[in-house]
């Protein structure tokens, strides 16, 4: 897994305020006007766009957690002063939602511009529990499956932890979204059958590795996961020989 991709996700996470702190979003909330910006403060069109995108992102995440669809009209009520830039703002918010939380925004009825939010890549897991009080964890699961896919059939545990460390996740350190990482990946995801965690054969001292579990194989494919990684990476496709090989194999199978 490229370090720059992990860092990009980490930076997005730093920019994103927990939507649980935004439950009081109102239609009257607006960015400060130029006259309201304190003298000497920096306030650029770029910061305005980030503020607006984050507001829309928080709204979409709240709708997902409530398991409710939404419409373009409802979204415009959140960012009504930027109606002319709605398509671009929705694209950016949707991208953040996908990368940070593994949730896709899908249009279900073009006639009334209605949308639903679902886990990406055909996965059925979001890690929120029946009370829907937690944050979605599908984004991290997708990245975890990407790490294993890039490594081939299995990923050495030390490689996995290096990738997680690059994301700012550390063994034994509680994270506000994902909880304690080792507990999540070696117990929860193993129980959910998305991941297999096993000792490397004949290793002494013991070493461990991760593989895709049966549920991951049933719900998505390595080709889709690698394509997802490539789509969101700035690195040239030639840097991913396994991506090229899997794509070629997929084309041969379809033929």
UniProtKB/TrEMBL annotation:
Residues 245-255 have a biased composition (Acidic residues). One of its GO terms (cellular component) is nucleus. Residues 49-247 form the MAGE domain. Pfam families: MAGE. GO terms for biological process: negative regulation of transcription by RNA polymerase II. It comes from Rhinolophus ferrumequinum. Residues 13-25 have a biased composition (Basic and acidic residues). This is MAGE domain-containing protein. Residues 1-47, 236-255 are annotated as: Disordered. InterPro entries: MAGE, MAGE_WH1, MAGE_WH2, MHD_dom. SMART domains: MAGE.
